[in-house]
């Protein structure tokens, strides 16, 4: 789970870099999108690299989801008591130091997954086209993000991604044996997770809001 | 100094002539003297080697046919079971806790002594032996103590090999400290939890054997009876035990070739002690009632620096390390009227630093028994502080001023935190209150040099036996003895006994087994049937008060006689008016406690009878009738240099029979202690 | 002060339990939490009712026997064992919920008493150093750097109370397991069995039905001995190393 998660985080960083090209204008953005498809030619066929990335990502998602299901079933059994709630006390339901993010990994993860499906249909395959379809990726982006509900949906999804990463980055690195701190809150990894999360979330939110507010180049 | 001549050379007038020379008193009968026949003679440093060489061996191939039961999984029990299992015997262990790792050895804070002489400060096996014999006030056997000092060295090696995280110096070598007033640094420690770390070491060794299949562990099982079976020659041998499964209530019998009791001490006879809630005498008392001699039952150790009682709901007392007395100053108000005042409002001139006043050379560092007794006198005098007037101040104000708060924090921080947590008072701001509490018992089942009781095939190790500490125990010696017995002594001496086995197999329906089971079942049903009006705890508390008042730090003939009467009344009260709820066939903690208290009630009586017989002040015990002109303890070596081994009377209501084992000192000259 | 306690009552492992309220009129602030339960039990016994079963032994915070979930938090609001919690932490009129440790691998035996035998079995699967009695070398022949010794000690202070499992939303015993891996893995004596230890203990941990660790950190926060969370990372490093050596050879 940790490794697949980190692969996806790596991809998100690249993806965000690409998104920020929106601010460089239509030409640059479309050129970038096209270049991604011709990257590595002639060693690789058209869209070759992209397909490699797609396969890796798909594999990562499958592994990630599979791990979630296994872990979820196991942990449900480990914490549960036959025919009863775990704790009846209604006090301190949020634990001692739990982060909100750690509560939302599972449902938040599902929101993210649903968003990915929609997102691919919208901006990759062009099947859903709020605001009008176009051959230019730039125009598809701009057309979409001029509509308020698209921006709102996208924002919610990005916040879900943010929460997922806030706990996920810390947790993945700890699972890989990198935590050297006696508790979660004081760990450098928690700090790192917060920074990366903020970068990714804000980085992804800038283009749509810029477009919506008419600030793009 | 011995007791016979006083300053004028006359025979001391207060030398008792009564109890010990008569063959029968109101409370006991005198039996024949006994000897430890297992101990070799010859030079003391050769005795243990000679014994090991003389001991018969068991062929490794035969060991797996031989079964040993070990009751109790503290330091002695766990280390013995692990070692015997490793040697290839079939071992079955029992503990009342939910895991062997929880035995009360875990609570020892201070450390463990070993004659390593790592500090090059003149320590040696001989010096550790000497200190221990002297510390025990010449009431322990020289042979046993010497062996203890010898194997102490191996204990440290063994524990380090197991991964016990002892404190270390920056060079990576083991650290030592001086402990309990001795002048050499021979105490190994693991911060304030040496007991836990040593026990975990033994526990892990035990779990390794459980995984290897040589040891079978029974947790939440309490031993309630010993099974004796006569062999072909008519010798009664310990062949098994009856236990109660504390979860289901099932009564089970287990038979074997030998039985080892390592069930700890009986300090809880005082109700309030530093022992764990479950610590009890049941296993040793059941063995005693089946014929095992109980030695020196009145020898208990009282620790001066415990946190005082705060109310009548109090369930146990908590010890704070004695090291506090290194820097703290003990005092009470000079005027009784000030006892209720905030101590900070009591002027320096109105404080009585009584230890410094009475014992100018040792001051606050006088031995445990003297510090304890002095505190009791102050409180008896009405100068005690805190709830019930049962406490004296231990003040760090001077130390904080002299060393600075950070230094005091570094040295005693964890103890101060513990005190603050329990009392809600800040010891940096306000003097701590301390009071003595029962901490350890030196008495226990009588054993010979092989740790075998007078019942053939019944062995006893650790605090449960009486063997090594005499009338008083040195600090950091309890852990040493438990592990010495378990790792090194028993596995060798038990082999000698087991060389004669396997004995005839005992069937589950053997009459002796059935009889023992039936006795257990009847006793449990009897307790459940009384359905009176007193709770078990209320009777236990009453027993504790009697014991503390009359058989605690200071004893007198009058008080002990009174106590025996009160205890007998209380025994009657228990068996007619106790209330035990629930049934046997469930987890029934009230029933568990009731069984233990019933045994404490009988043991308490024997302790008083033993104390009554011992008309001398020795070790931790002060006998009012035996003191010097200036009120110090007076020992009577001419009359009491013996182990009191008590035999349970065969007839119901009979008097216990005293067998004396004379103590001889060839190596250490008997001297009186002086701390003035 | 007056205190109301809601206590989990369950006759035995098979019965269905429920929370039952009891009122205590005179609770002293100096009482320990368990002494408060003692007082309740005296009251129940005199009324002819079955007293509340709960585990405790040393009552000085070291044996690890006691432990209940108080108001949803293992060992209650202070970072200490239940026996060291005192009633001065609460105030007059408080209602206190008292429940047993809850985890699939810690079945309730009765009321507040649970079976923690799984911990012993995890230790059996490798939580030791094989050092047969008598075979030890002279103690000072094994120097241990002080920093390692101190860190090992810190991990070795675990009292096996099970609060980490009770606190973990996943019912994982990873902190308990990791504490032992860390204690023994930091010492030179522990090196020969380091791989087999981590493989064996983690396998047993999983076989006992404990959950997987998702690094939420509640275990350390609830731990009365403050076993550090980095022990889990150390376990994971050892596990990854051992698995790779096992796979690659």
Structure description:
The complex is a heterotrimer of chains A (217), B (676) and C (249). With 217 residues, chain A is mainly alpha-helical. Chain A has helices at 2-20, 26-38, 48-79, 100-103, 105-124, 137-145, 148-175, 188-212. Chain A has one domain (2-212): Up-down Bundle (3 helical TM bundles of succinate and fumarate reductases), CATH 1.20.1300.10. Chain A is built from eight helices and no strands. Chain A is globular and about 60 Å long. Among the domains of chain B are: 303-439, Succinate dehydrogenase/fumarate reductase flavoprotein, catalytic domain (Flavocytochrome C3, Chain A, domain 1); 509-640, Methane Monooxygenase Hydroxylase, Chain G, domain 1 (Up-down Bundle). Chain B has a five-stranded mixed beta sheet. A five-stranded parallel beta sheet of chain B has the order 6-3-2-10-18. Chain B has a five-stranded antiparallel beta sheet with strand order 12-16-15-13-14. In chain B, strand 2, helix 3 and strand 3 form a beta-alpha-beta unit. The longest helix of chain B has 25 residues, at 589-613. In chain B, 59% of the residues are buried. Chain C contains eight helices and seven strands. Chain C has helices at 33-46, 117-124, 146-156, 163-167, 174-185, 194-207, 218-222, 230-248; strands spanning 3-9, 18-24, 69-70, 73-74, 95-99, 108-110, 113-114. In chain C, a hairpin with an 8-residue loop joins strand 1 (3-9) and strand 2 (18-24). Chain C is elongated, with a radius of gyration of 20 Å. The N and C termini of chain C lie far apart (66 Å). Classes of the chains: A mainly alpha (217), B alpha/beta (676), C alpha+beta (249). Chains B and C meet through helix 3, helix 5, helix 6, helix 11 and helix 12 of B and helix 1, helix 2 and helix 3 of C.
Can you give keywords for this protein?
heterotrimer; B: 676 residues; alpha/beta; Flavocytochrome C3, Chain A, domain 1; Methane Monooxygenase Hydroxylase, Chain G, domain 1; 5-stranded mixed beta sheet; 5-stranded parallel beta sheet; 17 helices; 24 strands; 35% helix; globular; disordered N terminus; C: 249 residues; alpha+beta; Ubiquitin-like (UB roll); Fumarate Reductase Iron-sulfur Protein, Chain B, domain 2; 2 domains; two-stranded antiparallel ribbon; elongated
């Amino acid at each position: 789970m940790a490794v697949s998660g980190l692969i996806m985080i790596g991809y998100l960083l690249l993806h965000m870099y690409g998104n920020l090209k929106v601010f460089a204008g239509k030409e640059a953005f479309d050129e970038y999108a096209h270049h991604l498809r011709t990257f590595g030619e002639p060693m690789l066929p058209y869209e070759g690299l992209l397909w490699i990335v797609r396969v890796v990502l798909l594999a990562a998602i499958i592994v990630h989801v599979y791990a979630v299901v296994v872990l979820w079933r196991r942990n449900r059994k480990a914490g549960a008591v036959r025919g009863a709630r775990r704790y009846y006390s209604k006090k301190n339901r949020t634990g001692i130091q739990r982060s909100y993010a750690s509560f939302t990994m599972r449902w938040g993860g599902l929101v993210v997954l649903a968003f990915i499906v929609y997102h691919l249909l919208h901006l990759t395959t062009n099947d859903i086209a709020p605001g009008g379809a176009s051959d230019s990726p730039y125009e598809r982006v701009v057309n979409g993000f001029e509509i308020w509900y698209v921006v709102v949906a996208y924002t919610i999804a990005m916040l879900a991604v943010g929460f997922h990463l806030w706990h996920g980055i810390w947790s993945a690195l700890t699972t890989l044996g990198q935590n050297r701190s006696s508790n979660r809150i004081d760990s450098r990894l928690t700090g790192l997770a917060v920074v990366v999360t903020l970068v990714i979330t804000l980085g992804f939110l800038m283009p749509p809001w810029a477009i919506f507010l008419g600030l793009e180049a | 100094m011995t007791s016979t001549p006083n300053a004028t050379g006359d025979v001391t007038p207060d030398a008792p002539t009564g109890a010990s020379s008569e063959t029968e008193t109101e409370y006991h009968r005198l039996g024949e003297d006994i000897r430890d026949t297992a101990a070799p003679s010859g030079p003391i440093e050769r005795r243990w080697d000679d014994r090991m060489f003389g001991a018969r061996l068991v062929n490794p191939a035969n060991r797996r046919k031989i079964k040993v039961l070990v009751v109790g999984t503290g330091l002695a029990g766990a280390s013995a079971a692990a070692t015997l299992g490793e040697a290839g015997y079939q071992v079955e262990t029992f503990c009342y806790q939910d895991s062997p790792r929880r035995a009360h050895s875990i609570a020892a804070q201070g450390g463990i002594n070993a004659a390593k002489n790592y500090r090059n400060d003149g320590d040696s096996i001989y010096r550790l032996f000497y200190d221990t014999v002297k510390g025990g006030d010449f009431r322990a056997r020289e042979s046993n103590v010497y062996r203890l000092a010898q194997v102490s060295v191996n204990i440290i090696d063994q524990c380090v090999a197991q991964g016990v995280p002892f404190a270390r110096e920056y060079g990576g070598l083991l650290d030592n400290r001086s402990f309990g007033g001795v002048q050499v640094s021979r105490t190994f420690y693991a911060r304030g939890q040496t007991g836990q770390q040593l026990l975990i070491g033994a526990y892990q060794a035990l779990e390794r054997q459980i995984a290897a299949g040589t040891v079978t562990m029974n947790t939440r099982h309490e031993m309630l009876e010993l099974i004796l079976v006569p062999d072909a020659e008519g010798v009664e041998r310990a062949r098994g035990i009856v236990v109660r499964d504390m979860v289901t209530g099932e009564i089970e019998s287990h038979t074997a070739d030998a039985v080892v009791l390592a069930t700890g001490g009986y300090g809880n006879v005082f109700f309030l002690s530093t022992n764990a809630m479950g610590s009890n005498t049941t296993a040793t008392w059941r063995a005693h009632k089946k014929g095992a001699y109980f030695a020196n039952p009145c020898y208990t150790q009282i620790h001066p620096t415990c946190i005082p009682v705060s109310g009548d709901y109090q369930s146990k007392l908590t010890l704070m390390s004695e090291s506090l007395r290194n820097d703290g100053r003990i005092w009470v108000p000079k005027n009784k009227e000030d006892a209720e005042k905030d101590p900070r409002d009591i002027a320096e001139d109105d404080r009585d630093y009584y230890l410094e006043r009475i014992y100018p050379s040792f001051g606050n560092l006088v031995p445990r028994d003297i510090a304890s007794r002095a505190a009791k006198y102050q409180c008896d005098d009405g100068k005690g502080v805190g709830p019930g007037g049962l406490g004296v101040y231990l003040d760090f104000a001077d130390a904080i001023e002299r060393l600075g708060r950070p230094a005091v924090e570094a040295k005693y921080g964890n103890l101060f935190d513990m005190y603050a947590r329990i009392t809600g008072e800040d010891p940096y701001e306000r003097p701590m209150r301390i009071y003595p509490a029962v901490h350890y018992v030196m008495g226990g089942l009588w054993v010979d040099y092989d740790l075998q009781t007078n019942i053939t095939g019944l062995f006893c190790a650790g605090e449960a036996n009486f063997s090594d500490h005499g009338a008083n125990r040195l600090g950091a010696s309890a852990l040493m003895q438990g592990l010495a017995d378990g790792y090194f002594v028993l596995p060798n001496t038990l082999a000698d006994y087991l060389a004669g086995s396997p004995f005839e197999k005992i069937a589950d329906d053997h009459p002796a087994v059935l009889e023992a089971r039936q006795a257990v079942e009847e006793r449990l049903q009897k307790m459940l049937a009384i359905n009176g009006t007193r709770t078990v705890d209320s009777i236990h508390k009453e027993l504790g008060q009697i014991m503390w008042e009359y058989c605690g730090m200071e004893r007198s003939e009058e008080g002990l006689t009174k106590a025996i009467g009160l205890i007998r009344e209380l025994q009657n009260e228990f068996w007619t008016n106790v209330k035990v709820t629930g049934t046997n066939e469930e987890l029934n903690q009230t029933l568990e406690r009731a069984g233990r208290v019933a045994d404490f009630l009988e043991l308490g009586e024997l302790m008083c009878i033993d104390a009554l017989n011992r008309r001398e002040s020795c070790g931790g015990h002060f006998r009012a009738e035996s003191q010097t002109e200036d009120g110090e303890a007076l020992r009577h070596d001419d009359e009491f240099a013996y182990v009191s081994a008590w035999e349970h009377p065969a007839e119901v209501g009979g008097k216990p029979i005293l067998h004396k084992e004379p103590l001889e000192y060839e190596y250490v000259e008997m001297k009186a202690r002086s701390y003035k | 002060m007056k205190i109301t306690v809601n206590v989990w009552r369950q006759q035995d492992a098979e019965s269905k339990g429920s929370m039952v309220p009891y009122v205590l009129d005179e609770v002293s602030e100096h009482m320990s939490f368990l002494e408060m339960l003692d007082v309740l039990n005296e009251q129940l016994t005199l009324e002819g009712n079955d007293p509340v079963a709960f585990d405790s032994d040393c009552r000085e915070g070291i044996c690890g026997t006691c432990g209940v979930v108080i108001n949803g938090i293992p060992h209650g609001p202070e970072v200490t064992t239940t026996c060291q919690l005192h009633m001065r932490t609460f105030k007059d009129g408080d209602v206190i919920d008292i429940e047993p440790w809850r985890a699939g691998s810690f079945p309730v035996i009765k009321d507040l008493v649970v079976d923690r035998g799984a911990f012993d079995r995890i230790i059996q699967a490798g939580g030791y150093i094989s050092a047969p009695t008598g075979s030890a070398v002279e103690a000072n022949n094994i120097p241990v750097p002080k920093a390692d010794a101190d860190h090992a000690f810190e991990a070795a202070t675990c009292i096996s109370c099970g609060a980490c499992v009770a606190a973990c939303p996943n019912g994982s015993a990873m902190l308990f397991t990791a504490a032992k891996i860390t204690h023994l893995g930091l010492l030179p004596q522990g090196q020969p069995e380091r791989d087999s230890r981590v493989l064996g203990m983690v396998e047993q941990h999983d076989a006992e039905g404990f959950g997987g660790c998702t690094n939420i950190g509640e275990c350390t926060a609830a731990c009365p001995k403050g076993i550090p969370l980095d022990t889990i990372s150390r376990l994971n490093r050892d596990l990854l190393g051992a698995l790779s050596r096992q796979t690659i050879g």
